[in-house]
Structure formats: C-alpha cells, structure tokens
Amino acid sequence: MSAVATLRTEAVAHLKFARMGPRKLRRVADAIRGKSVREALVLLKFSGVFASEPIEKLLRSAVANAENNHDMSSDGLFVTRITVDGGPGGGFTKRLDPRAQGRAAFKRKRLSHVTIAVGPQPPKHQPKQRSGAAIGLSTRTQRQAQAATSKPAASRRKKTAAAAGAGA
C-alpha cells in the first residue's frame, strides 16, 4: 500500500435487485450518460418512461452522497459513469404460471443492478450519440430521418457526363 492517499473525485450510488429488465433501464441510462446532473434530472422527470423513476431516485442519492460524504457542490456535477447489469441467476427469478389442463410454465421476472457515479467534471470522452436511440426510435425510423436530411448522391451517368464535359 502506498502512503499517498488518493482523492475521491466521484460519488457513487448503487441500486440492487431492481424489479425491472436491464434493457429497459439501459435505454434510460444511455440518455443521461455524460450529461450534467441538472440536465439529467430534468430529462428523467419529463421523459414519461416508467424506467426513469428508479434511475432518478438513484441519481438524487448519488448527488446527496457527493454533497454529504465528499463535500462537493451539486451545481457542477456530471454523470460520469452509469452501468446497468442483470441480476443474479441469469438476471431473473423464476415464477410458475398455471396453464391449461394442469400444465405450468415458467415466467422469468428480470432483475437489474444499477450503479451511478457523479463527479465534478464531465467524462474525458463523450459517448457516441445515436440519433434516435435515446428516445426509442427504431433503426428503420432513424435511417428514414437520416435519408430525409441528407443530400442524394449523384448518379454514375451524371458523373461520367460531367467528367466528359470537363475534358472536352
């Protein structure tokens, strides 16, 4: 062990065994990663997504940890890290669902673990922005939006005609 004490630059909060699937929580987590705490709280409050409520509570807990345990001001805090992992046992608990004629089927109730870290500076590299992924647009809708805003490529015939006209 070294004699030099390392300074904590981020405050962390954990949510374990959240009764919600990791995919639903990751969609919200991707939307707030790298944003300021104030901006993230506004986004979570008005997103209208059911998965944003536990993440909002966890973010408020991380900010309280930063203020009380690390003497940081809440004004300049950013979401430096947020991870969503599956819970134990493959990420779900099994429940029996009675079916017709005396049969039974398993229902898998998914669980998640969420970790949020807030710090005074934004992360060193900004996460790659996916145009509509944060708000839940399908990839087909994203491609259509991109095609509507981009300029259509010139055809090969026009290119060869322009090259022949320039050379003559």
From TrEMBL:
GO cellular component terms, A-Z: cytosolic large ribosomal subunit
InterPro entries reported in the protein's UniProt record: Ribosomal_uL22 (IPR001063), Ribosomal_uL22_bac/chlpt-type (IPR005727), Ribosomal_uL22_bac/org-type (IPR047867), Ribosomal_uL22_CS (IPR018260), Ribosomal_uL22_sf (IPR036394)
Keywords for this protein: Ribonucleoprotein, Ribosomal protein, RNA-binding, rRNA-binding
PROSITE patterns: RIBOSOMAL_L22
GO molecular function: rRNA binding; structural constituent of ribosome
Region annotated Disordered, chain positions: 118-168
Entries under SUPFAM superfamilies matching the protein: Ribosomal protein L22 (SSF54843)
Transmembrane intervals: none
Pfam families: Ribosomal_L22
Ranges of compositional bias, category Polar residues: 138-149
Gene3D superfamilies named in the record: Ribosomal protein L22/L17
Single GO BP term: translation
Function: This protein binds specifically to 23S rRNA; its binding is stimulated by other ribosomal proteins, e.g. L4, L17, and L20. It is important during the early stages of 50S assembly. It makes multiple contacts with different domains of the 23S rRNA in the assembled 50S subunit and ribosome. This protein binds specifically to 23S rRNA; its binding is stimulated by other ribosomal proteins, e.g., L4, L17, and L20. It is important during the early stages of 50S assembly. It makes multiple contacts with different domains of the 23S rRNA in the assembled 50S subunit and ribosome.
Subunit annotation: Part of the 50S ribosomal subunit.
NCBIfam families for the chain: rplV_bact
Record family assignment: Belongs to the universal ribosomal protein uL22 family.
Record-given protein name: Large ribosomal subunit protein uL22
Organism listed in the record: Vulcanimicrobium alpinum
Gene expressing this chain: rplV
